[in-house]
Fold this protein.
Amino acid sequence: MRYKVLSVASEVYPFIKTGGLADVAGALPLALAELGMEVKTLLPFYPEVARAIPRDATTVVFEMEDLFGGPARIRSAKAAGLDVLLIDAPHLYDRPGGPYVTTAGQEHPDNWARFAALGRVGAMIGQGASGWQPDILHAHDWQAALAPVYLSFSGGPRPKTVVTIHNLAFQGNYPREILPGLNLPSTAWSLEGLEYYGSVGFLKGGLHAADAVTTVSPTYAEEIVTPEGGMGLDGLLRGRSNRLVGIVNGIDTAVWDPGADPMIPAHYGAKTLKNRAANKRAVEAEFGLAPGDGPIFAVVSRLTWQKGMDVLAGLCDDMVAMGVRLAVIGSGEPLIEGAFHAAHARHPGEIGVRIGYSEPLSHQLQAGADGLLIPSRFEPCGLTQLYALRYGCVPIVSKVGGLADTVIDANYAAVVAKVATGIIVDEVASAPLLDAIDRARRLYDDAPVWQAMQSRGMATDVGWTASAARYKDLYASLLKDRP
């Protein structure tokens, strides 16, 4: 069956990216198209997107006189293999800063309107406003979650709806005062609608309205129905457990391919791991690390409490003492950034730190570092460990969410059975994390074992084929009773 799917997301790689959501929203439609589905992707026409897709390369499919305070044109285009629909509303999206924050790092004060608009236009397209009628509307995270809400209050035929939770910590909660501006009926304010502890909950409303809810790994699906992992929505999710499924993310293996990646100095494969040495030398030069044969462990992450970076920053002296060099790229909480800067000052040549994000540099670290540190306190899926597996950069991860689902711990039995692909730590605390890092260092010293782990990681299926097939099955289950 050739289903028509509208994917709605606030960021899509390669047009605009702040995190893994963009990678998923860019890669999943391509994988679904490989399975014979017709997919269009809706996103805002931010300045970054306009630079990637010029207006003269687009076609206007419909116009709106007033979309939350100003006119809008909905444009269509084909770019990077994707069939995209763009919300060209300058009063909402054409401004300095990122898609969510100002140049000063503060949330845009009208984010509620900017992403209500994304949901509103998604719902309109869902009902054929562009001249194309999808069978499924697939909304990603809180920024798109109002699309099923708007559809639930509209008359006439509508597509089945799916909401994917990428990170339950981000829910899109706003003061009740914005409710009149959403142009929804008063009945939308209810426990079965948008009301969330006296606030307007975008994600909460979408989870109620959707025909199905997915999240990005099976283990995370189990975690979010508990009080500890549910972020205040566990009761709602338990009540929808028959509509909740965890489908692990994949990555675009054409973009992330160590045999052809244009962003890395030297290409290699599982049978030519020796070629990684040139990439390791490049990482040493880029991060000011003293050349050597000992391991380089990397961090490519937001530097936040969620990611366990406060604990890791406190272990820098111990890592240097055990012969581990550290390369860090990321940004986040100022105290954690400062702790890594201070560690670099104490250990120049052993610890290198770059505050910010660079897509090329993240590829180079995956290709040149020996291990990747991901000690998250919670991690819905994680993509960096999938990149690491693909690049032979052994992941050292905590036992949560998608990290637990995608990495096989190098315990004695797994090493003997030749199935291990990484190192897993059970608790994000100083002593167990340091033990895991030391275990990784000792495994690194056993070159045949380490290289076997690298090769197995590189052979792991981290692409979208299997997961896209699961999404196709989910869509089919929603549409099975359709006339």
Notes: The two ends are 14 Å apart (CA to CA).
